[in-house]
Amino acid sequence: MVKITKKKQQIIKNINFKKEYNIEDAINLMKHYKNKKFNESVDVCINLGIDPKKTDQNIRGITVLPHGIGRNIKIAVFTQGDNIEQAMKNGADIVGGSEIIPKLKNKKNHFDIVIASPDTMHIVSKLGPILGPKGIMPNPKTGTITENIAKTVKKFKKGPVRYKNDKNGIIHVTIGKINFTNLQLKNNFSALMNEIKKLKPKNSKGTFIKKIFLSTTMGFGIMINIENINKIQQKISPK
Questions:
Q1: CA distance 34 to 42
Q2: What are the backbone dihedrals phi and psi of residue 170, each rounded to the nearest 5 degrees, phi first?
Q3: Which pTM was predicted?
Q4: Other C-beta atoms within 10 Å of 233: how many?
Q5: Within the chain, which residue ranges are assigned CATH 3.40.50.790?
């Protein structure tokens, strides 16, 4: 028989897992029962009312949350001229042209984001087979092909969030760390939900967002009240 710890007994006693909590209460509960041994990530699980078997209903994207996700982001930048210095000043890890290609091909090196100025795309295009499968190929839709290198590097250094639904139509996303303030977590959560709502497929019928759960890396899932989310203002508060 599996022994239930005192902490788990308290959680079971004090949290109604069938109840839908508002985002503020859910964050407070997570923080109250957090793991004290390490700084856990805070994750969101979103059950969508889509048909994952239909390609035109699949949801995927990339966004930068207002307060980042609490981890160091490695960025490679393809550019030239004055943009090289600007990229380095704003936190890029490697910057250059064809000479940095070997570093991206080296499997030991991991980069979260690759940014390129339009005048270097003839170089970057050759890396499609390497960057494409990793989801980091520069793309104008994600803002990673840009003339404004300084602003873009600074933005993505906060921490990009990639999301896509799995075969069951569920999205799993990290929105920060448990040591973030309540306001930071709420703002990140709100920003993510606003982005996903915009991507509702035209051919998707019925309820788009069916259920949402908030949890820590090793914690329990708390169901979020969807009606409460709809009332959250889109205004993002400053840090």
A1: 10
A2: -115, 135
A3: 0.78
A4: 7
A5: 75-157
Interior angle at CA 19, CA 210 and CA 213, nearest 5? 45
Strand partners, 173: 44
Handedness of CA 98, 64, 175, 45 (dihedral sign): negative
Tokens of 136: 């980091």
Chain centroid to Cα 152, Å, comes to: 17
**CATH topology for the 75-157 domain:** Rossmann fold (3.40.50)
| Angle, CA of 80, 81 and 83, to the nearest 5° | 75
Residue labelled with tokens 């508002």: 22
Grouping H, G, I as helix, E, B as strand and the rest as coil, residue 171 is strand
CATH architecture of the region 18-68+160-230: 2-Layer Sandwich (3.30)
Query: Residue with structure tokens 């980069």?
Result: 111
pLDDT tens sequence for the chain (239 residues): 455 666 666 666 667 678 899 999 999 999 988 877 889 999 999 999 999 999 999 998 888 899 999 988 999 999 999 999 999 999 999 999 999 999 999 988 999 999 999 999 999 999 999 999 888 999 998 899 999 999 999 999 988 888 999 999 999 999 999 999 999 999 999 999 999 999 999 888 889 999 999 999 888 899 999 886 665 544 444 44
CA–CA gap between residue 155 and residue 64 (Å, rounded) = 7
CB 44 within 8 A of CB 214: yes
